[in-house]
Amino acid sequence: MSSSNRQHRVLMVSDFFYPNFGGVENHIFNLSQKLTNLGSKVVVLTHAYGDCCGIRMLANGLKVYYLHRVPFYQQTTFPNLFGSLHMLRLICVREQITCIHAHQAFSTLALEAVLHAGSLGYPVVFTDHSLFGFADAASILMNKVLKCVLSNIHACICVSHTSKENTVLRACLPPGLVYVIPNAVNADDFTPSRGMPGEVSLAWPADLDRDPIVIVALSRLVYRKGIDLLALIIPHICNRHPNVRFIIGGDGPKRSLLQATVVENNLEDRVQIVGAVRQEKARDFLVQGHIFVNASLTEAFCMAIVEAASVGLTVVSTRVGGVPEVLPDDMMVLAEPSADGLCVAVEEAICRLKIAKPHEQHSRVRQMYSWSNVAERTLQVYDSVRDRNRDDALLSRLQRYRACGPLAGNGFAALSVLSFMYCTFLEWWFPSSNMEKATDWPLGTN
């Protein structure tokens, strides 16, 4: 296949990408790599991270545009509606994009790309990675914005069936437009400990009452990840099991709570808080433990528990969102999202260590989750978008916006008109036919 004959030419847009750490970032990178291997061209658009700005080339010829937009809250950029439209158009034309794929409802950059995609004439796919509520003021406002923004998408991807149900209800989307494609794991990057020289890991406990048992946790240290619950169970588990210690990876505003818990309970020699862990070091961190704890209060999928299971750890997780869909019961102990529920689940996980088979579990996870399978299914979504016959003229898009309500709907319709006028002006001022096209990275070149 020649470099000019790509199956699809996709622009991934999100505020969340490397060097930031998280599930969305890993998803975009790994999906992009596999799509490239399958014959498509993928370009990523995100905001600058410190000195990481401009254009960067990552593995397998993945080109990343880091826009000069400053994040103002948890790596999301401040909404500017039209400030980045010129760059978005320039990138799409130069890279000869055929489809825009936006990620994460929290991402301002992604939602703006969805809003402008119709004016630029590109079909758009949106992947929702999170769950939202329906009762609190913030959720009500976000759901209304999402309903309006997603009213003109061509397809939506959710990472679990629970996430699909949540998104369909929040955004009032036709269920036929929403596909379920789970996350995956690079099994070669998350293997059990082999006892190799220089590898930091522990022997598997034979005597559960005496041999050292290590519980690890790795996540953003924020309220949504259940760090308050984790802080409550640590003293209880340490008091009941003198041979158990904790290693906690990650950073965030709740780190101070964990540190205070450790000091108040004199657990400095049994609880280690190591801070942020880079993605390439995640496996080395996980193999230091026997049990992995996820205390999240809401999760659409939770990539971390799949990585932990691939390493061979016994997984404990709260029964929230799409988590029960992720792993079979013999690989994961589910708990109610409470301190008592998590304590009971950790006790059961300690008992399960006697029958755990890390290498056999790794083989099963390898068969269950594959990025190649995720990429192939995503290509089918792109194909459906390309082949779908839908009226995307301005008038039709305005009608879909106005159906979202008299206030918000008309407001987004007005924004769409302004977007269309701005794009028309940009085409007159700087015609796309005069733009130099970017050179494609040769297929099969790493």
From TrEMBL:
Start and end residues of each PIGA GPI anchor biosynthesis domain: 47-136
EC number: 2.4.1.198
Gene3D superfamilies cross-referenced by the UniProt entry: Glycogen Phosphorylase B (3.40.50.2000)
Signal peptide: none
Pathway(s) served: Glycolipid biosynthesis; glycosylphosphatidylinositol-anchor biosynthesis
Entry's transmembrane regions: 407-430
A Pfam short name: PIGA
InterPro entries: PIG-A/GPI3 (IPR039507), PIGA_GPI_anchor_biosynthesis (IPR013234)
Enzyme class: transferase
GO cellular component, one term: glycosylphosphatidylinositol-N-acetylglucosaminyltransferase (GPI-GnT) complex
Keyword terms, alphabetized: Glycosyltransferase, GPI-anchor biosynthesis, Membrane, Transferase, Transmembrane, Transmembrane helix
Domain of life: Eukaryota
PANTHER family for the chain: N-ACETYLGLUCOSAMINYL-PHOSPHATIDYLINOSITOL BIOSYNTHETIC PROTEIN, PHOSPHATIDYLINOSITOL N-ACETYLGLUCOSAMINYLTRANSFERASE SUBUNIT A
Name of the protein in its database record: phosphatidylinositol N-acetylglucosaminyltransferase
